[in-house]
């Protein structure tokens, strides 16, 4: 289980870092029209937060006592994905494909957080 959680953590960290880099070069509206309610300053702040979360996901490799950082990073990413889902619903968009994607990422984040807090702490 420990190896599986590490694989998920590394993949989620890479996914989140790529998303952060994407945010630096694209506006929220360019990414998804339903996210146009997010101001550009908040969008850039989210990119920085995502980079921090990417580091938090792999930080315990340096020191096991920082193990809680994995769960914190995963919970923040899950909250962001749920925020995107909420904005998508409020926008009235009828294409639910992006919501499925965001919910899958949020579920993976929840599993990592649960796995590190309950199933297999560091």
Topology as H/E string?
A: HHHHH
Contiguous uncertain segments of 5+ residues:
none
Assembly state of the chains shown: single chain
Q: What is the average per-residue confidence, as pLDDT, rounded to a whole number?
A: 93
Main sheet summary: none
**Could you tell me the strand content as a percent range?**
under 5%
Q: Work out the helicity level.
A: over 70%
Number of helices: 5
Globally, the shape reads: globular
**What is the terminal-to-terminal distance?**
11 Å
- Total of domains: 1
Question: Can you walk through the features of this model?
Answer:
This protein has 122 residues and is mostly helical. It has one domain. 76% of the residues lie in helices and 0% in strands. It is built from five helices and no strands. Helix 3 packs antiparallel against helix 4 (68-90). The longest helix has 24 residues, at 2-25.
Lay out the secondary structure.
Blueprint lengths: L1 H24 L2 H4 L8 H19 L9 H23 L6 H23 L3
Task: Give a quick summary of the entry.
By secondary structure, the protein is mostly helical. It has 5 helices and no strands. It has one domain (2-119).
């Amino acid at each position: 289980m420990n190896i599986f959680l590490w694989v998920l953590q590394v993949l989620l960290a890479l996914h989140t870092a790529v998303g952060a880099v994407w945010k630096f070069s694209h506006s929220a509206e360019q990414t998804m029209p339903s996210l146009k309610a997010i101001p550009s300053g908040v969008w850039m702040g989210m990119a920085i937060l995502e980079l921090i979360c990417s580091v938090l996901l792999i930080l315990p490799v340096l020191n096991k006592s920082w193990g809680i950082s994995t769960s914190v990073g995963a919970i923040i990413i899950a909250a962001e994905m749920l925020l995107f889902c909420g904005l998508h619903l409020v926008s009235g968009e009828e294409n639910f494909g992006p919501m499925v994607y965001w919910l899958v990422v949020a579920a993976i984040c929840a599993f990592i957080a649960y796995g590190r807090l309950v199933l297999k702490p560091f």
